[in-house]
């Protein structure tokens, strides 16, 4: 018992050395026994407090669940750590507990059961290939590669099994169209085989990120607004929206125009700076990576394919969050403004095209809409306005009308469940018009109507004989002559002059819908 009572106390505690404590007797010994007791108690409390954290954060103390990633340490270690997410809205309601983040949000994906420190690719879609990398991922700019560095034990197992994994992906959702896919850079994904320590040092991290990487392309057809959203931003959002902006966009074919034009949308996808993968020669390190994007259909989000059942309305909400300023605090003035909004006439936006598919009697259509009861806003497509200005204009519209074309993609800015969209479909483009904008508009909760242009309303009636299949039977003409006819004649060589008496009925239905929506507010 006497021996066990002689606990070593570090020098400096209570102003006495260890020898002083053991040599002292009487009251002093009792006094220092008290100090020893509190010292041991403090040590025990520290162990109880910090050991669980060490066990959670230790790279060797747990195994990452399949399909998950963990962010890297802030030290020079290449072993990633488990993701820690704060509580509240940003944490998905997990109350601040440690959690692992799922990279693949797709239901029934073959990559939902991927092993840790591996690469998994889903190539089942006719539109796109998507690959996932779980673990310590590093860029290699010289070869446009992403390198996966497993922990050393995994590397030894890999060496014994004689396996070395490599995948190649062109991250653009039109893989069925070889012409454009050949222009999209190919990204190599490799699991690094066991190497000498000095070789691993060659890939030392220059920039460490605490969020996974999404590799997407700003090339392809994305100079066109429709394709920028259909091939770019919407598939990217579908792929990473569950990460709630905790993702880094690694962009191929990056250019300043793209970044400036869509800056708000980019910020809606990610809280981090964009990485230009083709020109940034630094080694970037990530706790995981997604290469390529999911594609559900033309401007479509299929909730049945997502674990969290998101819809196109949720994508619209992302745009609203990106473009809208926070609403002012409720005051008497805002209440008066709301009353004034109730009393004002419904607002109709008319998309005014230049070049082809122009409404040749647009001024008369605007006057007609005004006589029906609309306040009319002519929305010029070539006026150089930023998308934020377009968003503000369309947000104020109760109804939108325009001829089929890329600018109708801005229907995504209309208010879901309240606004209406009328698409004017020229000769030869009716099925395309309905698929491109009609179906997704209806899924977003817009009242949709398609105005089918008749031969007499088309400028093609002035170029072709009345019995020519081009105007008399567009479907037959397209079967005989294919896409070239569609692109050259129906899309590239046609304007419309609307029958005002006929179009008035369409406008009247749009106006009645707008009034009903006002009454429901």
UniProtKB/TrEMBL annotation:
<keyword id="KW-0328">Glycosyltransferase</keyword>
<feature type="domain" description="Glycosyltransferase 61 catalytic">
    <location>
        <begin position="334"/>
        <end position="418"/>
    </location>
</feature>
<comment type="pathway">
    <text>Glycan metabolism.</text>
</comment>
<feature type="transmembrane region" description="Helical">
    <location>
        <begin position="32"/>
        <end position="51"/>
    </location>
</feature>
<keyword id="KW-0325">Glycoprotein</keyword>
<feature type="region of interest" description="Disordered">
    <location>
        <begin position="324"/>
        <end position="346"/>
    </location>
</feature>
<dbReference type="InterPro" id="IPR049625">
    <property type="entry name" value="Glyco_transf_61_cat"/>
</dbReference>
<keyword id="KW-0812">Transmembrane</keyword>
<keyword id="KW-1133">Transmembrane helix</keyword>
<protein>
    <recommendedName>
        <fullName>Glycosyltransferase 61 catalytic domain-containing protein</fullName>
    </recommendedName>
</protein>
<dbReference type="GO" id="GO:0016763">
    <property type="term" value="F:pentosyltransferase activity"/>
</dbReference>
<dbReference type="InterPro" id="IPR007657">
    <property type="entry name" value="Glycosyltransferase_61"/>
</dbReference>
<feature type="region of interest" description="Disordered">
    <location>
        <begin position="74"/>
        <end position="97"/>
    </location>
</feature>
<keyword id="KW-0472">Membrane</keyword>
<feature type="compositionally biased region" description="Low complexity">
    <location>
        <begin position="330"/>
        <end position="341"/>
    </location>
</feature>
<dbReference type="GO" id="GO:0000139">
    <property type="term" value="C:Golgi membrane"/>
</dbReference>
<keyword id="KW-0808">Transferase</keyword>
<feature type="compositionally biased region" description="Gly residues">
    <location>
        <begin position="86"/>
        <end position="95"/>
    </location>
</feature>
<dbReference type="Pfam" id="PF04577">
    <property type="entry name" value="Glyco_transf_61"/>
</dbReference>
């Amino acid at each position: 018992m006497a021996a066990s009572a002689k606990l070593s106390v570090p020098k400096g505690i209570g102003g006495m050395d260890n020898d002083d404590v053991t040599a002292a007797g009487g009251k002093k010994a009792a006094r220092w026994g008290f100090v020893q007791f509190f010292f041991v108690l403090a040590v025990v409390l520290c162990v109880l407090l910090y050991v669980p954290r060490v066990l959670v954060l230790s790279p060797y103390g747990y195994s990452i669940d399949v399909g998950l990633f963990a962010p890297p340490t802030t030290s020079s270690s290449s072993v990633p750590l488990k993701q820690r997410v704060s509580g509240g809205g940003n944490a998905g309601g997990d109350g601040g507990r440690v959690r692992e983040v799922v990279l693949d949000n797709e239901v029934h994906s073959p990559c939902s059961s991927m092993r840790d420190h591996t690469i998994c690719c889903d190539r089942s879609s006719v539109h796109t290939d998507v690959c996932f990398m779980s673990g310590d991922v590093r860029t290699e700019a010289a070869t446009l590669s992403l390198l996966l560095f497993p922990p050393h034990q995994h590397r030894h197992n890999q060496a014994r099994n004689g396996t070395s994994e490599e995948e190649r992906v062109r991250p653009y959702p039109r893989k069925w169209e070889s012409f454009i896919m050949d222009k999209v850079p190919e990204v190599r994904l490799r699991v690094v085989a066991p190497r000498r320590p000095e070789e691993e040092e060659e890939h030392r991290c220059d920039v460490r990120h605490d969020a996974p990487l999404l590799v997407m392309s700003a090339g392809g057809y994305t100079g066109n607004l429709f394709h920028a959203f259909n091939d770019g931003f919407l598939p990217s959002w579908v792929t990473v929206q569950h990460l709630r902006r905790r993702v880094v966009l690694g962009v191929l074919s990056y250019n300043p125009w793209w970044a400036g034009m869509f800056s708000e949308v980019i910020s809606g996808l990610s809280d981090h700076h964009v990485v230009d993968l083709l020109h940034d020669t630094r080694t970037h390190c990530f706790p995981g990576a997604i290469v390529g994007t999911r594609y559900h259909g033309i401007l479509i989000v299929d909730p049945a394919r997502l674990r969290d059942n998101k819809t196109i309305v949720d994508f619209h909400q992302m745009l609203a969050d990106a473009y809208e300023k926070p609403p002012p605090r409720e005051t008497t003035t805002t209440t008066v403004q709301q009353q004034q909004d109730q009393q004002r006439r419904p607002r109709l936006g008319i998309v005014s095209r230049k070049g082809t598919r122009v409404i040749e009697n647009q001024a008369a259509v605007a006057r007609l809409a005004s006589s029906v009861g609309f306040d009319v806003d002519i929305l010029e497509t070539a006026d150089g306005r930023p998308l934020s200005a377009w968003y503000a204009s369309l947000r104020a519209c109760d109804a939108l009308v325009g001829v089929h074309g890329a600018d109708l993609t801005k229907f995504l800015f209309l208010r879901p469940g309240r606004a209406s969209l009328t698409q004017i479909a020229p000769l030869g483009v009716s099925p395309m018009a309905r698929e491109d904008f009609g179906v997704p508009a209806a899924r977003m909760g817009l009242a949709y109507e398609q105005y089918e242009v008749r031969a007499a309303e088309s400028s093609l009636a002035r170029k072709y004989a009345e019995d020519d299949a081009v105007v008399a039977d567009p479907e037959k003409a397209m079967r005989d002559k294919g896409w070239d006819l569609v692109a050259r004649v129906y899309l590239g060589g046609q304007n419309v002059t609307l029958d005002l008496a006929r179009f008035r009925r369409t406008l009247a239905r749009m106006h009645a819908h707008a009034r009903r929506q006002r009454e429901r507010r």
